[in-house]
Design goal:
The protein contains 16 helices and 4 strands. The radius of gyration is 24 Å and the shape is globular. By secondary structure, it is mainly alpha-helical. Helix 2 runs antiparallel to helix 4. It has a 4-stranded mixed sheet with strand order 1-2-4-3.
């Protein structure tokens, strides 16, 4: 067996393992939710009715079941693009025009991105206009859906093409240390995007209005002052334009930070509850979770680029994945496609890190406000968002960035 055959078999084996594992986890999730569908967990008895609990169960099961179809579909597409010769055919077609290597690479990668988006479009339409509609969450119109796609595509071209050009140029011209230069560019670009996102990008898709003067703003401002959080303002986003789901977050970087509440959330929660939810978000800031997350992202990106720098010098990376003509851009594209296959086993570690951060942010919120208000706010969001109260432990360990509802509420009750 030569290196090409060995790598192809390794790729197929990892793809099979990750796919079967995902299907097994979805089976566990569905079975576990079904088994607890007819009984509201004791921690929520009296706050969430059996009807609401069953709606959340049915919604969660429907999402997991639907998720199996695009999972299998994506696996088939991945095999088609690689071993099936799809990328090689696309590459040969673009190479026929004899453009310079960087331009060729950009066209190939943009063409792949466009074709992939079109192939995934039916699932996006089904999720928005059938699944979310069925459970009463969708508020997206066809016009909004189409405009979001157009805006996303335009922004992708404006932002992505220059970045991609720089990356491909460095890969081609910067010598053996190109991966260090690319890492610096990507890191700087990530920080820049965090800084400009609140004021330049997010408003392209949503309207942001300053929170009106009143008791709610006064209490929020007081909490921000106590926590030493400087922001560019507190804003309300028209989340109801697309969905009835509610949320709150802060975005930005450095002095360009802003607090954002979904209008749906403002309608759901009391001032005490809103203050508690914001205290939780500020907990992420005070505990430096954003910085820690960035450092992890930077580190994993550096490791990934170092691996890519080694892989792109091999012949079996290309031949083992159905590509006949090695190139820097094809190495980058192949690496992007296969990385999730080989790193799926690491998913529980990232989920564990995220849940640890959520516990710390909850503890911080309980120190700044009364924990009972965060509990009631969470219960309200579980109810309004139809979040399952009974996820399968293994499924949750792999996928959930937040602790399961009963575990999180128990943790907050211990803060009293």
């Amino acid at each position: 067996m030569n290196d090409t055959q060995a790598f192809t078999l390794l790729f197929l084996a990892m793809l099979a393992i990750s796919t079967l594992m995902r299907l097994y986890l979805s089976h566990r999730q569905i079975a576990h939710i079904k088994a607890h569908r007819n009984q509201v967990p004791a921690a929520f008895d009296g706050d969430i009715s059996l009807h609401e609990h069953q709606k959340a169960a049915d919604y969660s099961i429907a999402k997991v079941r639907f998720g199996r179809l695009p999972l299998i579909y994506d696996v088939m597409l991945l095999l088609m693009w690689t071993l099936g010769g799809g990328l090689d055919l696309l590459d040969q077609f673009v190479r026929h025009y004899a453009l310079n290597p960087i331009t060729t690479g950009i066209i190939v990668m943009l063409s792949y991105t466009l074709l992939s988006a079109l192939l995934d479009l039916p699932f996006s339409i089904y999720n928005t206009f059938i699944l979310e509609e069925k459970f009463g969450f969708n508020r997206t119109t066809i016009k909004t859906f189409i405009m979001d796609m157009i805006k996303g595509a335009v922004l992708g071209l404006i932002i992505g093409v220059p970045l991609l050009y720089i990356i491909l140029w460095l890969m081609q011209q910067a010598g053996n240390a190109w991966w260090l230069y690319v890492w610096l560019v990507i890191s700087a670009f990530s920080l820049f995007m965090m800084w400009v996102y609140p004021t330049w990008i997010a408003p392209v898709f949503n309207k942001f209005e300053p929170l009106e003067e009143g008791e709610t703003l006064r209490r929020i401002t007081s909490l921000l002052t106590r926590c030493g959080f400087n922001s560019k303002g507190v804003f309300v986003i028209d989340g109801s334009k697309r969905s009835s789901h509610g949320n709150a977050y802060f975005s930005g970087f450095g002095k360009n930070k802003r607090i954002v509440f979904f209008d749906t959330l403002l309608n759901q929660l009391s001032d005490d509850e809103l203050e508690a939810v914001l205290a939780h978000e500020l907990g992420h800031f005070r505990k430096k979770h954003i910085i820690k997350g960035l450092l992890i992202t930077f580190a994993t990106t550096l490791i990934g680029l170092a691996i890519l720098a080694w892989l792109m010098k091999t012949s079996w990376l290309y031949s083992g994945l159905g590509v006949t003509h090695p190139s820097t851009y094809m190495a980058l594209l192949l690496f992007t496609l296969i990385t999730p296959v080989f790193t799926f086993v690491l998913q529980p570690l990232f989920s564990l890190f995220s849940r640890k951060n959520e516990f710390e942010a909850d503890t911080f919120a309980a120190q700044q406000t009364d924990a009972k208000f965060l509990i009631s706010a969470l219960v309200g969001m579980y109810r309004e968002n139809a979040s399952t109260l009974t996820p399968d432990p293994m499924y949750s360990a792999f996928y959930d960035s937040h602790p399961p509802a009963p575990v999180r509420i128990a943790h907050l009750n211990a803060q009293h």
